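Worked example 3 (structure in, sequence out).
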């Protein structure tokens, strides 16, 4: 960065100097390492999800950005962006555990593995490396701290679903700061009996978090953390009051995931809000981690971009992108002009095969255009290429698909009918569905891929998906994809899958990056992992 500016300001001498560096000549003036690395991961944030945010910011007539650039754009404009493949060692498409592992370790990994190489051997992660260098380390996510992406930076497990074991292991490498959701994996199972352990947990957490446990043992990991010197916080007020000098901090702000993007934007201005925003987590993280003179490694995840895209839920996806952009803003401003910090903004993969698309429905009416070519004829494109105003309507969705269906599932059995679903959807979306469409969304068929012991395929009746049905793998959650299909024709939104695609993702380097070692072209995420490792010193 500064080098490029220098070329413009100071002319040929510096140009020669920079070429010497590009050619690999040693220079005492450019130290090979960086003190701080901040890794921003938009889970499921493929190039098309980025395009969606930027289109919304600039083209929606009533965009909340009001013509301002997104922070993601600023980072891309001032940094350098390349493309990266994400696949596992022996497969085409990656999951979040394997992808985060490859970023964290710089080696190929296997599907659904955490912190292991492709054979299943533990590999030192960039976070563990940073610890050894005496740096501070932090993990931040709006999902659960035990979820695949954060877990892969500090634990080593055969499978991502071992979240109870991950919680225990997170306390072993001594991650200095962990801020996220997922309290349910830190509480002893006896809290579920709603007796003494339960009351103690309610008292400790201040009563703002739903108390239940997913553990199968009596381990109280909060007590373990406390013994290891962690300050514990459970709400926004406590987080705010936490001094910057706090050496170790564990913040768990919800039983499972933190609020989705829509709920977040509906509640962020509420002064009584107890759950901090992703942005607030990042502010506090930087305040604390930057106290270490030796520097820090911080990973921040916008983890629910992926979840919205799995659900084929365009409205929530847009809110998740905005939410992540709010977190990027803090990092962008903090790192701006710093020579000692490298920021890497990337995704672990694309989710949903998402896109805005043109259709044969509602083709445009002829209009008059002032240009010469239309002096004697009207302008009439053959297809519906999508109006800018659609972006505002998509943003106005009132509830995530997940929240809608969880509300529907909570109704008494007799009320679970298509009419009720239709009303629920139509109250919460600018795009309306008919009773017939609602009936189609609730239609089930025998599960062709039934597996008795499988976490998701163990249901005998499966939502009836009509296209690419094999790619809707999460059981009843597939209903959201059927809702998406009902809305698609009016939203100009399409989805290819309920899982991930192999779409290469962007990797943006911002702040200090060694010019001589810079990655270029199209790489693989393990290369990005190795690059981080080389630069951290
Ligand atoms: Mg994730
Ligand atoms: Zn995913």
């Amino acid at each position: 960065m500064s080098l490029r500016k220098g070329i413009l300001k100071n002319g040929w001498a510096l140009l020669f100097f920079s070429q010497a560096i590009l050619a690999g000549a040693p220079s005492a003036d450019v130290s090979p390492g960086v003190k701080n690395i901040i890794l921003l991961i938009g889970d499921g944030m493929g190039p098309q999800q980025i395009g969606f945010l930027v289109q919304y910011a600039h083209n929606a007539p009533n965009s909340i950005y009001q013509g301002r650039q997104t922070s993601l754009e600023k980072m891309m404009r001032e940094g350098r962006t390349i493309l990266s493949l994400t696949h596992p060692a022996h497969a085409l498409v990656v999951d979040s555990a394997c992808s985060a592992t490859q970023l964290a370790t710089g080696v190929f990994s296997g599907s659904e593995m955490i912190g292991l190489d492709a054979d299943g051997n533990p590999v030192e992660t960039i976070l563990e490396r940073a610890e050894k260098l005496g740096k501070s380390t932090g993990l931040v996510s709006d999902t659960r701290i035990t979820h695949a992406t954060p877990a892969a930076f500090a634990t080593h497990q055969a499978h991502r679903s071992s979240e109870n074991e991950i919680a225990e292991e997170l306390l072993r490498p001594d991650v200095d700061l962990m801020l996220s959701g997922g309290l349910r994996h830190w509480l002893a199972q006896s809290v579920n009996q709603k007796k003494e352990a339960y009351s103690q947990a309610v008292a400790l957490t201040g009563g703002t978090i739903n108390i239940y446990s997913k553990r199968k043992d009596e381990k109280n990991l909060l007590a373990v953390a406390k013994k290891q010197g962690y300050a514990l916080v459970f709400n926004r007020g406590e987080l705010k009051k936490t001094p910057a000098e706090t050496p170790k901090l564990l913040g768990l702000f919800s039983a499972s995931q933190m609020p989705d993007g829509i709920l977040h934007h509906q509640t962020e201005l509420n002064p009584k809000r107890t759950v901090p925003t992703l942005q607030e987590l990042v502010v506090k993280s930087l305040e604390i981690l930057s106290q270490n003179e030796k520097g820090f490694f911080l990973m921040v995840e916008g983890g629910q971009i992926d979840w919205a895209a799995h659900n084929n839920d365009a409205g929530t996806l847009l809110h998740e992108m905005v939410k992540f952009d709010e977190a990027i803003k803090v990092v962008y401003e903090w790192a701006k002009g710093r020579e000692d910090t490298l920021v890497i903004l990337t995704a672990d993969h694309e989710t949903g095969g998402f896109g805005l698309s043109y259709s044969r429905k509602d083709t445009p009416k002829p209009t008059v255009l002032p240009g010469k070519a239309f002096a004697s004829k009207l302008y009439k494109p053959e297809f519906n290429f999508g109006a800018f105003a659609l972006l505002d309507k998509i943003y106005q969705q009132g509830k995530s698909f997940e929240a809608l269906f969880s509300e529907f599932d909570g109704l008494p059995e007799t009320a679970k009918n298509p009419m009720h679903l239709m009303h629920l959807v139509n109250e919460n979306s600018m795009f309306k569905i008919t009773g017939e469409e609602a009936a189609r969304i609730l239609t089930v068929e025998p599960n062709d891929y039934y597996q008795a012991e499988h976490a998701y395929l163990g249901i005998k009746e499966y939502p009836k998906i009509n296209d690419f049905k094999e790619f809707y793998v999460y059981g009843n959650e597939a209903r959201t994809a059927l809702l998406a299909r009902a809305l698609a024709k009016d939203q100009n939104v399409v989805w290819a899958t309920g899982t991930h695609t192999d779409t290469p993702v962007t990797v943006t380097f911002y702040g200090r990056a060694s010019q001589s070692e810079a990655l270029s072209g199209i790489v693989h995420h393990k290369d990005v992992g190795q690059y981080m490792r080389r630069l951290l010193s």
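Notes: The chain has a mean pLDDT of 93. The first strand starts at residue 36 and ends at 42.
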